[in-house]
Amino acid sequence: MERRKFLTLSSLGISALSLSSFKSAKGTLRRPLVISTWDAGIEANKAAWKVLRGGGRALDAVEQGVMVTESSQNCCVGLGANPDRDGIVTLDACIMDELGNCGSVGAIERIKHPISVARRVMEKTPHVMLVGQGAQQFAVEEGFPLEEQKLSPDAKRSYENWLKKNEYKPVINIEKTQGHGPFAPNKLDTGEWNHDTIGMVAIDANGNLSGSCTTSGAGFKMRGRLGDSPIIGAGLFVDNEIGAATATGQGEDVIRICGTHLVVELMRQGLSPENACKKAVERIIKVKGTEKSKQIQVGFIAINKQGEYGGYCIQKGFNFAVCYADDKNFMEDGKYIL
Ligand code: SD4
After folding, report:
1. Among 170, 190, 275, 283, which is 20 to 30 Å from 135 by CA?
2. Which domains are seen in the chain, by residue range?
3. Catalytic residue positions?
4. Which ligand 1 atom is nearest residue 216's CA?
């Protein structure tokens, strides 16, 4: 927000929060603003909003927001999530700030908060990505406790089910409770979710953007497989001049088009967040072909520097959580193409 406007309103006793809906020439300017993928985004947004409403930095908001999801035992993300096809939970995460700094971990095991390790990689090493044992070693050196290697009851049940068929093929990520939030616990039992990721992007009261993305990766993936989520420009991209985007769904197809980098570049050319996400989805369909695209799901969400947001996906079933005020934290269904 423009500093002068902020100071004037502050001196009138109006809090930063009430600024979230003041009008600009482009329509309603929502700032601060945080959006995140899937139903679990509601709880994650609440934690992010606590940071943003107090005037905090978007980077802290996106880290603390997705930590909530990583902590949940009954969720698709974090150590309680589905394992790879050898029965081991391996986690990927990345984070990016308003200065273009970024950090990432891939295939890390027994660490509860990969997003925080990704942040340490960004802040404390000369590197962007650490993977596997090296990432775990770094986490331990940084004081992160090594958790037990044990499947959560939900993941164990779902892995045992998977082993019966041992079928290795992509699943179409959907949220059957679409738009109904909040995130309900035993969804593995009811089959109400089959996704594995939370991506979050935010703009703070100072107009700075950041993003985070954390996942257990595609359920029952090959051992050693990395998806888009820990890859800057695929699962997450932030450009503080323009906007920020994150992705979910079939990671291989997001990587092929450098998905979130593409979304941000399309916003740079003047597209709204929603239209930029739509064009990126269209690109995937063009590259993959319509018939094969019907077998997969990809969803993008994005915000721009003006505080506008949007999302788009290949097919029905993707949703995202939007928060820009104490009483405005709600689900939106992603528009879809096929
Ligand atoms: C991956 N993009 O590892 C992730 C999976 C995902 O909802 O988003 N699932 O490919």
Report:
1. 170
2. 51-336 (3.60.20.30)
3. 197
4. 3
Ligand 1 site, CB within 6 A = 173, 195-197, 215, 217-218, 227-229, 248-251
What DSSP string runs through 241-308?
A: TTEEEEEEE-HHHHHHTTHHHHHHHHHHTT--HHHHHHHHHHHHHHHH-HHHHTT--EEEEEEETTS-
Ligand 1 geometric centre to CA of 274 (Å): 20
Task: State in Å: Cα 32 to ligand 1 middle.
Answer: 27
Question: What does the pLDDT look like over 106-139, one tens digit per residue?
Answer: 999 999 999 999 999 999 999 999 999 999 999 9
What does the block give as tokens for 233?
A: 């420009």
pLDDT at 219: 87
pTM of the model: 0.89
Distance separating alpha carbons of residues 18 and 33, to the nearest angstrom: 12
Expressed in angstroms and rounded, the spacing between residue 252 Cα and the centre of ligand 1 is 9
